[in-house]
């Protein structure tokens, strides 16, 4: 009971945070049109960062055994967002005003609003087949788009990392060793697309398992 209540509260907090971001984005777009896209990060960036930092707890939930999700795919999904949000977008003010940030935030929050709604209801033993289908099907369609948006955000940020030298390190003599951060980001692009293969595989297996379980329970009832 205690663990289930804790997980419900966690899902509720995440649902409230992502719902606020998603609603705020829609209202701002309806009110200001394309002008609202450029300052998306400035208006909702703080809440977005808090929600993503809080999502690190999900890795601990799996390690502690209170969440039965697979660790590796969930770890990849969370770290991808952390890297892109905190390392790429948050560190480069010029990138924060790009339209790709708005697209990325929209995809993330659309998926998370549905996911945390499903999780909250599941904690109380409530399962709606349409919501289950949406939760485990929409992510398969939108996750590749979010990976493309992440990759595009990294590509847009590269000139700024190159010109400003952010995170690049050059050690003095006698080490004569340097780390050129744009090379690391270019390598991370490969990691993104390799990770996408494993995550989509996991999403398909989760979809098959959950939809089959729900259909069986529906027939029995």
From TrEMBL:
Keywords: Endoplasmic reticulum, Fatty acid biosynthesis, Fatty acid metabolism, Lipid biosynthesis, Lipid metabolism, Lyase, Membrane, Transmembrane, Transmembrane helix
Broad enzyme group: lyase
Domain of life of the organism encoding this protein: Eukaryota
Reactions performed catalytically: (3R)-hydroxyhexadecanoyl-CoA = (2E)-hexadecenoyl-CoA + H2O; a very-long-chain (3R)-3-hydroxyacyl-CoA = a very-long-chain (2E)-enoyl-CoA + H2O
One GO BP annotation of this record: fatty acid elongation
EC assignment: 4.2.1.134
Membrane protein topology class: Multi-pass membrane protein
Transmembrane segments: 7-29, 41-64, 126-159, 179-200
Record-level Gene Ontology MF annotations: very-long-chain (3R)-3-hydroxyacyl-CoA dehydratase activity
Pfam families per the UniProt record, alphabetical: PTPLA
Pathway(s) this gene product operates in, as recorded in its UniProt entry: Lipid metabolism; fatty acid biosynthesis
Matching PANTHER family: VERY-LONG-CHAIN (3R)-3-HYDROXYACYL-COA DEHYDRATASE, VERY-LONG-CHAIN (3R)-3-HYDROXYACYL-COA DEHYDRATASE 4
Its job: Catalyzes the third of the four reactions of the long-chain fatty acids elongation cycle. This endoplasmic reticulum-bound enzymatic process, allows the addition of two carbons to the chain of long- and very long-chain fatty acids/VLCFAs per cycle. This enzyme catalyzes the dehydration of the 3-hydroxyacyl-CoA intermediate into trans-2,3-enoyl-CoA, within each cycle of fatty acid elongation. Thereby, it participates to the production of VLCFAs of different chain lengths that are involved in multiple biological processes as precursors of membrane lipids and lipid mediators.
Full protein name: Very-long-chain (3R)-3-hydroxyacyl-CoA dehydratase
Native species: Nothoprocta pentlandii
């Amino acid at each position: 009971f205690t663990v289930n209540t804790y997980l419900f509260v966690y899902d509720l907090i995440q649902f409230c945070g992502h719902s606020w971001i998603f609603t705020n984005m829609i209202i701002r777009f309806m009110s200001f049109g394309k002008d609202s896209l450029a300052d998306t990060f400035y208006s909702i960036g703080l809440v977005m960062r808090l929600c993503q930092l809080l999502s690190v707890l999900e890795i601990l939930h799996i390690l502690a055994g209170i969440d039965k999700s697979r660790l590796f795919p969930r770890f990849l999904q969370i770290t991808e967002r952390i890297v892109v949000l905190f390392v790429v977008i948050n560190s480069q003010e010029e990138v924060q005003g790009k339209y790709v940030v708005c697209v990325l935030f929209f995809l993330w929050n659309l998926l998370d609003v549905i996911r945390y709604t499903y999780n909250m209801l599941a904690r109380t033993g409530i399962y709606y087949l349409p919501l289950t289908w949406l939760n485990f099907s929409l992510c398969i369609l939108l996750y590749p788009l979010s990976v493309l948006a992440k990759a595009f955000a990294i590509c847009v940020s590269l000139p700024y990392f190159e010109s400003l030298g952010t995170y690049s390190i050059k050690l003095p003599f006698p080490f004569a060793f340097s780390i050129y951060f744009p090379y690391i980001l270019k390598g991370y692009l490969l990691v993104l697309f390799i990770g996408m293969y494993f995550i989509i595989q996991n999403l398909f297996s989760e979809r098959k398992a959950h939809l089959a379980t729900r259909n069986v329970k529906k027939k029995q009832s």
